[in-house]
What does this fold into?
Amino acid sequence: MTAPEAIKSKGEITRAIILQAALQQASVSGFESLTIGTLAEQTGLSKSGLFAHFGSKEDLQLAALDESVARFNRLAFIPALSAPRGLPRMRALIENWLTWTEKAELATCPLMAASAEFDRRDGAVRDAVERHLRRLNIECMKMIDMAKQTGDFAEDIDTEQFAFELFGIVASCNQARNLFRDKLATQRAQIAFERLVASACNPQKAAKIKTQKV
Amino acid sequence: MTAPEAIKSKGEITRAIILQAALQQASVSGFESLTIGTLAEQTGLSKSGLFAHFGSKEDLQLAALDESVARFNRLAFIPALSAPRGLPRMRALIENWLTWTEKAELATCPLMAASAEFDRRDGAVRDAVERHLRRLNIECMKMIDMAKQTGDFAEDIDTEQFAFELFGIVASCNQARNLFRDKLATQRAQIAFERLVASACNPQKAAKIKTQKV
DNA sequence: ACATAATACGAACGGTCGTATTATTATTGG
DNA sequence: CCAATAATAATACGACCGTTCGTATTATGT
It folds into this structure.
């Protein structure tokens, strides 16, 4: 049992280099666009040399997906946990979520992109994407429940509904940023988040909104 | 100048059959997954026979995109215009937007899927996707402004912000439906929309929310 | 320093990709 | 009904796909 930060072997280093290139490529053109040849060219490896690090293209895609999850956790999720429980932590998460791709030098969040890319397909990659995003969804709901416990949110708000709208804000932010090249995208997402919070934080106000006819 | 509903030539009929198959395929696996060979097999044509209908694969993608826009307009947008101006028309649009893919027998809205698929790339397809969705965004904003004129919405709400959040609701609905297979997705989207409307329809309440610190 | 395992390479495979050219068959207007 | 034209097919091409295999090279542990 070696420590997680153990010295990397040559193979592990190469693998990391490959995954770095794969992640960058996938964040631009999608995971399905990953090709052994292009990736080999970019990393200076031979096709077969690169291929040997993964048993198949699907394994490469899965590895790239796992790597992007690891980076999201390291750059966005875990740092948010150091904020106080409740609303501050939620705010930190959404803030980090909207900005971590920049720090990671990626074109967009590979997870959300992979969601749209694979959501209507079958296979191992789709399953992995669903698993990862479902987990993130659950973590968000935990934070929402915590915010109820701390008194930041009203007890009677719909946790799943809140998470649904949260994911929508992130999705729209990505669309505004990438498709519309809107420089105000992040700001709009923050405003949307605060509006969402506002409708949940004040019990009286929240009750009014919740009980109106649909 | 023939009428738009003129009798179709054999070629036009075949082309329509091809586009139908292309649209279905694209709504499942994305526009980039469209291949001449697979499409030829599905339609019973030869590769070269099918190819002759489009000068290139890119033209095929663009034609499929245009076709999906035409269907969206026919099944979702135009019908919404028969609802009274203002909030009712907006409600009709979002309702149709969330359900038209079912009527069209597609796996998801090809436009929103194409947005996520091409938003970080370059090329004619990306440009077309941006053009189409920007137009839809503008049409949404027109409806929002109309709702201000009819008095349904407060005059001082941020039209672009409202449209931003509207697109987020649709995106989250698609994710919930397709990735999470959430049967309540449409319902959640409707609730989110009504919550969004609620924060814009009552002047006093809207003012409160808008002026809070961010 | 040496044995051994890890790592990378080059070449080749069968397939499929998009596309061009050339020929054949259907459709259609006069 | 026939000529003109549109529509489809047949065939082939080079490029790239993921993958396999045998071999060379390079680290690594002792």
Summary: The CA atoms of residues 169 and 191 of chain B lie 10 Å apart.
